[in-house]
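Q: My hope is that you can spare some time for a protein that puzzles me. Underneath my words sits a plain record pairing an amino acid chain with its backbone structure tokens. Those tokens are not coordinates but codes from a learned vocabulary of shapes. Thank you; the sequence and its tokens follow:
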Amino acid sequence: MSVVTLEPLPEDTPVLSCPFDLVITPQSSKSALKAAFGDLLDTRLEQLSERQLVVVYILMHFLNHDAQHFKHAPYLKTLPGSSQLLTPIYFNEVEKKLLGGSNVAVETKKREEQWRRELNHAWTVFQRVYGAHLVFTGAYWEKACTWISSRAFPSSLLSTSNPNASSPDSVPVLLPVIDCLNHKRAHPVTWLTSARLLPQAQASGVGERGPYINLVHHPALEAGWQVFNNYGPKGNAEFLLGYGFTIPDNPDDTILLSIPKGPAHEIGREGRGIQPLWNEVRERMGIDSTDTDWQNIMDAGQAMSDMILVKLDVHDVVDDEIDMEAVRPLVRGYIKNYMEGQRDILESMHEYCQRMQRHAVQQAKAEGVEL
């Protein structure tokens, strides 16, 4: 789905608006479920996580419940079906092989297991309403979870003071219709809250009460051009796992690496952010952070280089061993963008290790030691 201008769009135009009353939040989902089922659920809803509440609220629309409580059916009908979702959970087995032992492959399995646990837990909560009948199937649960991962916005956008500021207390929320805009990196847009519907949108005849969340599109566009949003700086790992697409040569690509029982380190292109990992490798080897001994630098460089080569190996998928006819061209392109980005980062990290070792060799020569 995409949004295209029918006529020229002036700069700094609010292109989409959504009343707060139509935003799907964990709290609004809980309120709707309480109103629909009353005492049947007593305090059991308190056992559900924020995502479970939103997922259950979404799925209730497919169980023919009263639109008075579950009012988002028209919006949900616009969302993609399972055959249109391209996150790794929806890859076939051959396509998953192309991910090798990458972080996305590992996280996909973890996500499947986590969603399955959440489904089973939610089912026990609603047994009092539906008895032993299985209400939520795995397919529907996965689809609703994927809608959330690919379309949710931070609840901080609903701040009436500064919707563009992030907040540690923010939770995922769904903004009907606003979520239909595709991503374009660094595209200039701004979020704006308003007490009333903005003049540019009044012709729509929307009758919901304010306040409203509005997306302001800053560049002017000619008629027939696509209107984009900006999802923020994200790497292809996040885009593929959560949204189901990737960007060629994404400058925001990162890879997460950790030493057993150690923290995860996020490394970007050109080795950006590698220093904390380098320091941890030295610390694990008993080398002080201020130690400049060339032998210790050589040893640390070799140890970290070996670790990186192992990661490169799990990203080295041999296409000849895979039935590429079973791989959808679009999926193949998305995986290619992701895997190439991961390899580029790992290769830059390997070059960093080699550079440190070359520096150690020069230092040794200066001390009269030939290596």
In short: The chain has a mean pLDDT of 90. The beta strands are 3-4, 13-19, 153-154, 172-173, 182-183, 189-194, 212-217, 226-229, 254-257, 265-268. The two ends are 61 Å apart (CA to CA). The chain is about 40% helix and 10% strand.
